[in-house]
Amino acid sequence: MHLVKVTRKSSLSDEFTQMHHSSHPSPSPSPLQSTSSPLSHNYSDYNSDIPNRSRSLSLTSDHSLLSQISDYNLPKKVAPNMKDFLEGLDKEFGDGKFTCYLPIFEEQEIRVSHLITLSDSEYILMGVTIIGRRQTLRNEAKKYE
């Protein structure tokens, strides 16, 4: 069995207090005897703000990551040929609603990418008189920009 002797050493604060009282007889308390430390007050204020700072940092980091990703030239969706494009619309919106325009689009050499920029009057000249269909053609073609 080992015996351990425990002794209490005076702390730096105790030593300073003793030195301060012996060299200065005035009754004013030493800075180390004050009940609150200037650092503890500032430190606690800092700690209470950590969740807000973390959240702000997180949002900033996510934003910068997003901007880095968007800076890369990500591959765009390849536009299908007009026949496949119109057949896809027919499947979604109803048989024959869009493939009926295939012959005129082929005659006028219209590509899917052209559908976005065609004016209403150009659509009407090609027989696309229904406003909703013109909008659908434009909106669906924008997915391939």
Automatic annotation (TrEMBL):
Residues 31-41 have a biased composition (Low complexity). Residues 1-55 are annotated as: Disordered. Residues 42-53 have a biased composition (Polar residues). It comes from the Eukaryota. This is SAM domain-containing protein. It comes from Rhizophagus irregularis.
